[in-house]
Specification:
heterodimer; A: 440 residues; mainly alpha; 2 domains; two-stranded antiparallel ribbon; 18 helices; B: 237 residues; six-stranded mixed β-sheet; four-stranded antiparallel β-sheet; 10 helices; 10 strands; 26% strand; globular; binds adenosine-5'-triphosphate; binds magnesium ion
């Protein structure tokens, strides 16, 4: 009869050996051999020592993890307790839930004040703009994935459509940002409808595969339709944003007034960045307000209901196809807005900006944030953008950190950071129609 | 009010209904009884147009609804509480009821909510609780209440007593009677609980293997020897 500790050790050793074996198989070709340039060609350098270190780390790590789990689960089960970290995470989540409105207001206030903080420089603003783009994309995709429960792996396609719409409209028809924005949104929504119409009767995994394919298709079309999109070279010198017609340039073009002249300020490069920052902040907040409002409208509630039970929805008089299409199209529209913003901010776009990995990051933001949670999306976006950003010095380990963070979240908060669905209406007092009105 | 004439419904190659005709008149409670797999649920679903009958016709208040899509049929004043409750588990009781009033919108919701809470006081106390955390009986009540929110003229109930304790079964049947008598809602009721159902119903049909084998008033069927042998012996009470 093995003692409990002996049995645990055996299980742990076995697991560790398997993990180390897998690590060896993966690491040998990836880490063990390396192509290096030498004069007159390339040669292969071997780094078996690295492989050994790596495999050893995996073995010990896995052993520790398994032992820890094996030895504490019986007690935990008995006491019905979770690990202290999980409890901590749950407490944080409960706290955020409870004060979500408060957090929202403080967060928004902070966001509006950020450009004027003493420590804020152009770099911080630039990063903040990137974070906000992803927050907006996350909120947009949240309509499709979080609310309507449609797994869309090709969301980046709509982002691309929005970006190219603006770039091409500005270039070919001299439209300003504000004129193209609604058009870009409309185009993206139209693409959403075009894609949605044939595929929305598919379910779950099939829908995911088709949307994945659609995302790639759009990118490949952009790559190959040289005459319109410039192919791999993309579209450059896209009209930069202006402050409602007053450009952010040191010297105003003929017949125009520059922004700093209008305001009577010294010219500064940061004006444009600050303007871009507020622009994306407002676009993102509009997206948020829209989804929050939608959840209280019959259509938004129908999205959520459809995710839970399609048959029940049908028998309540909901038209599933149209309802899903609307979620798809509206989500796409916000992707399109974000795309336009991206184009005007970068001044240059190419198909390279719209690869699958973008879709994956946006989806990760929605899933990690806790599907359907608006605040969770902000945290997840900040996290997923800032970690690689600040990990830049540790460039080699960026993906490693990213992976570790993902695993950690899935272990401790498998349903997302803030996995909690707020009811869209409440009725506290025992009461009639008046209470219902007040509650909703 | 509802006339089903000679419908054949298929699931792929399987013929689940083989020429079923029934009639439901204004103000009645009509019950359908039959063994598992006889086609009772399929009949209710065919009335709602999902799946649609391949042959035969379904007529509601003089209108041919055989080829209509579900969401349009429901708008004509038919409500269907499908088998197995199918409430929305992550939504609160109130939100579930709100979905029931989807067609009529918030105005309808405000008009009907008190009436429904009157019929099901338990739900009023649990209004902010998530559907998934209700007890089985409460969920069943919620399913019926949700169907009533659209203020249907015809209510299709599929096994409302499924999985409920005898006390609750009685309560559910009492409520169905109340809905029928006080609210003037015509009811087509599918039940395994043949005894209660036949006692409650004005008329009943026995469905066997996709065909109507017997029909008559509730009392007639209760007295029928075959019915007793197949559906009542040892069953109820
Ligand atoms: N979606 C489906 N696909 C294929 N066959 C189906 C489907 N739904 C039902 N059937 C078949 O049709 C027949 C009738 O099913 P139905 O659900 O109408 O039975 P029922 O009388 O409601 O039974 P129960 O009392 O068990 O609910 C059964 O043989 C069933 O296997
Ligand atoms: Mg059935």
């Amino acid at each position: 009869m093995p003692t409990p500790v002996g049995a645990a050790l055996r299980t742990a050793l076995k697991e560790a050996a398997i993990a180390a074996g897998v690590a060896l198989i993966v690491a040998l070709p990836l880490v063990g051999f390396r192509l290096i340039d030498i004069t007159g060609g390339v040669s292969i350098q071997t780094r078996f020592d690295w492989v050994v270190y790596g495999v050893a780390v995996v073995f010990i790590g896995r052993l520790g993890l398994a032992l820890w789990r094996e030895l504490r689960i019986p007690h935990a089960r008995k006491a019905g307790e979770a690990s202290s970290l999980a409890i901590f995470a749950e407490q944080i989540a409960a706290f955020t839930r409870q004060y979500s409105l408060y957090f929202g207001i403080v967060g928004a206030a902070f966001a509006f004040a950020l450009p004027f903080m003493p420590f804020t420089d152009q770099y911080i603003l630039d990063v903040a703009i990137t974070v906000l783009i992803y927050v907006m994309l996350g909120w947009g995709l949240n309509i499709v994935v979080g609310l309507a429960g449609l797994l869309d792996l090709g969301y980046v396609a709509f982002y691309a459509v929005g970006a190219y719409s603006y770039a091409l409209l500005a270039q070919n028809f001299n439209l300003t940002f504000w004129e193209s924005l609604p058009l870009a949104g409309a185009f993206a929504a139209l693409f959403g409808l075009l894609l949605g119409f044939p595929v929305l009767r598919l379910r779950g995994d099939y829908l995911a595969i088709v949307t994945l394919g659609f995302g790639e298709m759009i990118r490949i079309i952009l790559l190959n339709w040289q005459s319109l999109t410039g192919g791999p070279n993309g579209v450059s010198s896209i009209e930069r944003p202006s402050f409602f017609g007053y450009p952010f340039t040191a010297v105003a073009p003929e017949g125009k007034t520059a922004f700093h002249e209008l305001m009577g300020l010294e010219f500064s490069n940061s004006h444009r960045v600050i303007f871009l920052y507020f622009l994306i902040l407002i676009l993102a907040l509009i997206t948020n307000a829209f989804s929050v409002r939608m959840r209280r409208l019959p259509l938004g509630r129908a999205w959520e209901a459809l995710r839970e039970d399609e048959i029940a929805c049908r028998s309540l008089g909901i038209n599933p196809t149209n309802t899903k299409l609307s979620a798809f199209a509206l989500g796409a529209m916000f992707g399109g807005f974000a795309g336009s913003f991206f184009a005007t901010r970068q001044g240059f776009i190419s198909p390279e900006s719209f690869t699958f990995i973008e879709s994956a990051v946006i989806l990760a933001i929605v899933v990690l944030g806790g599907m359907g949670s608006q605040f969770g999306v902000v945290i997840a976006a900040a996290f997923l953008i800032l970690v690689p950003e600040f990990g830049r010095d540790l460039a080699q380990f960026r993906m490693l950190m990213f992976g570790f963070a993902m695993v950690a979240i899935m272990v401790w908060r498998p349903r997302g950071l803030i996995a909690h669905r707020e009811p869209s209406m409440r009725l506290h007092p025992v009461g009639g129609p008046e209470a219902a009105k007040a509650g909703s | 009010m509802l006339t089903v004439s000679g419908i054949h419904t298929f699931y792929g190659p399987i013929e689940a209904l083989r020429g079923v005709s029934i009639e439901v008149r204004q103000g009645e409670i009509v019950t359908l009884i039959g063994a598992n797999g006889a086609g009772k649920s399929t009949l209710l679903m065919t009335v709602c147009g999902n799946p649609q009958a391949r042959r035969g016709a379904v007529n509601f208040e003089g209108q041919d609804i055989t080829q209509m899509s579900t969401h349009k049929i429901v708008r004509l004043g038919i409500a269907h509480a499908p088998e197995g409750r199918r409430i929305f588990p992550r939504m609160t009781v109130l939100e579930n009821l709100q979905m029931g009033a989807y067609i009529g919108g918030d105005e309808q919701f405000r008009k009907e909510i008190d009436r429904v809470f009157n019929l099901f006081p338990v739900l009023a106390n649990r209004r902010n609780q998530r559907g998934g955390t209700l007890s089985g009986g409460e969920q069943q009540m919620l399913a019926i209440a949700r169907a009533l929110m659209s203020r249907p003229r015809l209510l299709l109930l599929d096994e409302p007593s499924l999985g409920l304790a005898p006390m609750l079964v009685k309560q559910i049947f009492a409520t169905i009677r109340e809905i029928n008598e006080r609210e003037k809602v015509t009811v087509l009721l599918v039940e395994q609980n043949a005894f209660h159902a036949l006692k409650l119903a004005s008329r009943g049909y026995v469905i066997v293997n996709g065909r109507i084998a017997l029909s008559g008033t509730g009392a007639e069927l209760l007295a029928n020897r075959e019915v007793r042998a197949a559906y009542l012996e040892g069953g109820a009470h």
